[in-house]
Design brief:
By secondary structure, this protein is mostly beta strands. Helix content is 0%, strand content 62%. The chain contains no helices and eleven strands.
Length: 118
């Protein structure tokens, strides 16, 4: 099993910044990637950004140029630096960890609320 602990959400005005952190613990020896997804009220969960242990990144078009994902492999921790936040970024942000042990397994954090006021 893998446990994920998230931190860093909160309330910020439009144009502001927040930094999310997520640390994975437990059976993380086969960790292949981590990432952030978000879910706004009434909408489906969507990808925000992902990063592999080899540091390859992928971003949703809506956050390119504003958000930066990074990972500290030694700490099994992923960060999401969010700049120039917009009200439409308001959502619950979920951390994801992907483990490969013959097949892929995905684990999720409990979610952290990000609210951007206009």
């Amino acid at each position: 099993q893998v446990q994920l602990v998230e931190s860093g959400g909160g309330l910020v005005q439009a144009g502001g910044s927040l930094r999310l952190s997520c640390t994975a613990s437990g059976r993380v020896f086969s960790l292949i990637a981590m990432g952030w997804y978000r879910q706004a009220p009434g909408k489906q969960r969507e990808l925000v950004a992902t990063i592999t242990t080899g540091k390859s990144t992928n971003y949703a078009d809506s956050v390119k140029g504003r958000f930066t994902i990074s990972m500290d492999n030694a700490k099994n921790t992923v960060y999401l630096q969010m700049n120039s936040l917009k009200p439409e970024d308001t959502a619950v942000y979920y951390c994801n960890a992907a483990i490969r042990n013959i097949q892929r397994y995905d684990y999720w954090g409990q979610g952290t609320q990000v609210t951007v006021s206009s």
